[in-house]
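Cast an eye over this sequence plus tokens and explain the fold to me:
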Amino acid sequence: MDITDSKNSIAEGKEMMELAISFLESELKNFRAGKANPAILNNVMVDYYGTPTAIPKVASVTVPDPKSMIVQPWEKKMVAPITKAILDANLGFTPVNMGENVRINIPPLTEERRKELCKQARGAGETAKMSVRNARRDVIEAHKKFKKDGLGEDVCKDAENEIQKFTDTFSKKIDEMVAAKEKEIMTV
């Protein structure tokens, strides 16, 4: 074992933590905060010739104003399946089939729904923190093995301190992201 293995292990741990942040960013985009956001439809699947396909892959989603979205399918016959998929996704709004497109009016969120969304955002944040802690654990365990294989104790201790700094930094970033999303959700 040499110091290169230690540095590679730390780099892998940091990369896993960055992936947790990226995942949290994409998760938080799915929480609607009372205004139209096309990202809400990214995970809504529609039956496209027998294959479940995300709505943005079969239609364009536009936001003409903060309280509505228009889903314009590339094939006219997809209007009904898209309408059904949005209804089935239970996103808290009702799509309207306009013949050639689907209009979605975004209703204001109730206080109860806002609190529920905040709770879900905190849950997503906790999941991301768990991923960060798991990455830290993996690096520390790898360094314990490296130590048994002959890597210096001071190198292992330095690596543990470095990965702990990354853990603290990423945990703080997660807290800030969740707090910002909660503020956005609770703003009427």
